[in-house]
Amino acid sequence: MAQSLSAVLAAACVATAAAQQGKAPQPPRFTATIDLVSVDVNVVDQDGRPVRDLETNDFTVTVDGQPRRIASAQFVSLTAPAAPDDAPPPADYSTNVPAAGAPERLIAIVVDRGSIAPVRAKDVFTAAAKFVDTLRPQDRVGVFSIPEGPTIDFTTDHDAVSAVLLHTDGMAHGSGGAKYVGISEAVAIERGNSFAMENVTQRECGGSVQNVRDAGGNSELAICARMVQDEAATVATYAHQRARDTVSGLAALLERLGTSETPKTIVLISEGLVVDNERFVTRGLGPLLAAAHATVFALKPEASDSDASQPRAPQNRSQERAVNETGLLTVTRLAGGELFRIIANPDFSFKRLATELSGYYLIGFEPEVHDRDGKQHNIAVAVRRSGVQVRARTEFSVEPAGTPADRQRIITGLLRSPAVATSIPFRLTTYTFQEPGTTKIRLLVGVEVDRPDTGRLAMGFALVKPDGTTGATFYQPAADAPRGTGPQTYFAAMTADPGGYVLKAALLDEKGRRGSLERQVRAYMTRMNRFRATQLLIGDATQSAAGAGSISPTVSGSLSGETLYTYMELFTDAPAGFDGTTARVDVFPAGGSRPVESGPAILQPPGSDASVRAAAASVPIAQLPAGAYVAHAVVTVDGRDVGEMIRPFRIER
Questions:
Q1: Are residues 580 and 615 in the same domain?
Q2: Cα–Cα distance, 122 to 238 (Å, whole number)
Q3: Residue 59 · residue 363 · CB < 8 Å
Q4: Mean pLDDT over residues 608-632, rounded?
Q5: How far apart are CA 638 and CA 648, in angstroms?
Q6: pTM to 2 decimals?
Q7: Which of 45, 125, 145, 358 fits 149 for a cystine, CB–CB 3.0-4.6 Å?
């Protein structure tokens, strides 16, 4: 059954939905068939250990003060190892469905360098590196410095992250003024607090404010008082600028994290966030934290009384601490996290953090219609058990799919985000071909969605080069869903220069649910003796506009029909290169050394270019038992095998 690539793509219904015919493969089971809003909540005991035995009726949820019905409450363990008999992830497709064991975590370590004095917190960064070393291999971690400094993007290379942390230091500069004014004093003087001004003037100038007035404007006492006022203004301005830098850095990170429902953790290392008298600075963080499903834990190194980096110990240490902590407490409250003060042993604080991050509850509640209006809503989660602490964000928002512009914006955000969205579980595979008449590569992208109730899907794909630039993009605002109860299959074609890419994929349904993942792609032709070969496409037969018996490419490698259909293309420099060339397809059991079925591959030009041959084959598999197999497309020249392309698959009965 030889046919051109264009016929194969037509059969695949490029960029449109095609129902999976026949008996559907057995996908992972999903129970979320009700339209629910998901909220991640931490419930810990007095030692920070997650409480793991709560049930649905132990929780209450209110939105804008009104109760909502809770449909599910599932504890998600983030420390459980994968089962020992788990198979490695398949190489022929990718999925956003977590494997058995604990799902990956996304952790951003944000170093507020502008608030941290040089050298003083080196032991904190050493403890942070040890914390990273304890994370599981699948956890992705990034380091981000504010306002500038060492940075490493999200990665599973924990050694690289630890190395960055060990070479990180603070960059805050102390006051260079001749008079000492603490931050709490500077902020109070800025507010016009006459009592604070009186205290500092007495301490630094040896006289009261009234004495200054009595002494006259050019007296030594008056000059000293002006120096105090100038220093207070400088200290307050610097503190406010640092706060704006920190909040701007957090906002930029949250915007990049996107709007997926996957929980994310931000570990903020900071000596202070002064937002007293301008609390509006943090106002915009609430919606971003809610949209990103991010929890913030702040770790605040405390200066000791003997700290040589301080010109003078604060007169009121508790007041100084309170002003420095105001913003940190505000952010952690908005984000459902906690503030940990590092007094002597930073390792203890990071161990406490690791304990709190070891699990959470995923609560699904039934929303009212107006809950899904894209606006911010206050949310409160409580537990009917004493002696526990509940950590949950105070705001949430759920964006509807909305207008075409809204859909495209959400898809773009998902493609930019390093987090994997799982509200729409799906699998993805790629097949590499050559664009006719050029050296470019045509990538056929196949998506198999498990949910039958997604409605019309918006979908987007981006091929990202190693340097972060984009090689190709694809966007479909509304792919119609097919009828039926089985998995839904969609295809799209992208054209790009040869090279290595990360393929990022994003889906959005009409209810606002999201799915995303990424897959490493090698967009190359394979050298095979004197030929250049495309990848081997495999699939079942289907009835389509392309005609009876056209190939329906498989995404997950599962076949349920009686025949295995394969397709590949061979390129050579001249038509004579095909003289004496034949091809066949052998089917081996996975791990086997002898073929159990075989069939010839018919070679014929797929178009007008005589230097190209399409090799299509049909191999009977009706008599083979269910299980794992590998298709080998073997190319022979003058009776000698010169190369092969393989593709694993599974027979599902």
A1: yes
A2: 23
A3: yes
A4: 93
A5: 27
A6: 0.81
A7: 145
